[in-house]
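Throughout our pipeline, every protein is held as a single compact record rather than as scattered files. Nothing more is needed to write down the fold, since each code stands for a local backbone conformation. The record that follows is passed on verbatim for readers who wish to inspect the format.
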Amino acid sequence: MKRFVKLVAVLLVAALLFTGCNPVAWQEWLQSLLGQNLVPFSEMEYTRPDMDEFRDQLEICTEGAKSDTKASTLMDKVYVLYDIYYRFYTNYKLANIYYYKDLKDIYWAEEYGFCLENSAEVDAGMDQLMYALAGSSLKSQLEAEQYFGAGFFDAYSGQSLWDETFTQLMEQEMKLQNEYDSLAAQALEYSSFYYLDSPVALEMEQVLVDLVKVRNEMAKYTGYDSYLEFAYEFYYDRDYTPTQAMAYMDDVRDELAQLYMEIPASVLSALDKEWSESEMFSYVESTANNMGGIIAQAFTTLKDGGYYDISYGPNKYNASFETFLPYYYVPFVFVNPQGNASDPLAFAHEFGHFCNDYASSGMVCGIDVAEVFSQGMEYLSLFYADDGEELKALKLASSLSTFVEQSAYAQFEHRLYQLEEPTVENVRALYSEIVEGYGFGDLGYGNREYVAVSHLFVAPMYIVSYVVSNDLAMQIYQAEDAEVGAGKKLLEENLTTESLSIVSFAESAGLQDPFADDRVKSLRETFEKVLG
């Protein structure tokens, strides 16, 4: 009987998707805070956002856009709104961290739910502001260098996407996501994944069906032929199509799935070693210190400010992620440890995101590109951590797992939104078909296993990011393996990239396009070399 171990922890980067609407002066003010008087995480205070305050100031700004005769007068009002806006998202993220730390904490469950369900109104309001400013007689003054910059409002011509109907659809989506999180808290009553055979899993399945329906309605309302196209453009601004992604995943299945099933038991035995929290911390600390430069600076900031939670907790959310706290202008890392050798790699992964946010003062690249830095840091830790060599084979096995498992999940997700009429029954059938096609259908947790994949619920169309970005991250590994310091240089030089998608980033960084012919075959050769 083959030994089957899920090698990849559920990873979720909570990224800022709204940085594109910032006035230049506000960005400069925030950047001036970086490295100066940083507030330790333990001293950050949460306050429930005041939605009436937001609405009132939004009205003041939109009215000012019509009546004010000086750009400076109007911008004074806009800066007040931005202050409220950043406080909202910082409090939202603080509530998220504390709730995910203990899903049974009722107070934080309510606070997180409040922020989550009001986020659509806040995003809609900021979009409304941009259109009001774009229509102002002061538009040319507002595009001065000290405010928004030349040509900023070109993106806000025509009609806003965020009308009343679209906002309501987004609010429905947020409520369903909050319902999933509540069900995840109930699942803690069961040991391990036994909840997959419980009524809780059935409720999760129905939530996913309802999410698919709402999201498909959202895409249809905004004029897209499919939710795939909508999500690729609206959330990720990708420069490759769903069709290209599906073809890539087909290649992964055909070239790598069988190799994945044949990972030697001797490699997986590395998971038998227990890793403590202090050992996990030391692994990434030694990685950063041995790499030096901005990587070491980032880790010192993380350590001194306590901008991380890598502790074990029985009620912790089954995910690891990095997020950026905009009002304090610092990143934060959250890891749900498993007590084995996957933990130092998970921490290294999220620290890679931390470095990207730290170096660029808040993520300015696309999400697919950001995953290159997180997975790239995992690979580089094999060369720079004091204990890196002993995890080399396991990391390569984990990487193979990322390609195969995440491709299967991503392909399932892509086809999920193409179902004519999604139901619990045909979603289960689709999942079974996909995983059996990858050859590991009989080794998982049955046809309900997908409810444990949180990305399907809270980060739609994100999963494929792990797959295509891992291709570029593997190239960082290959560069470091061929020449000491070459991979490190690649990562460091690109931490501040503003590339929004993976193909353009690959070109600018001198890396091979993941969609190039026979790319997956070359990956297979690297895996065979290490894993035998």
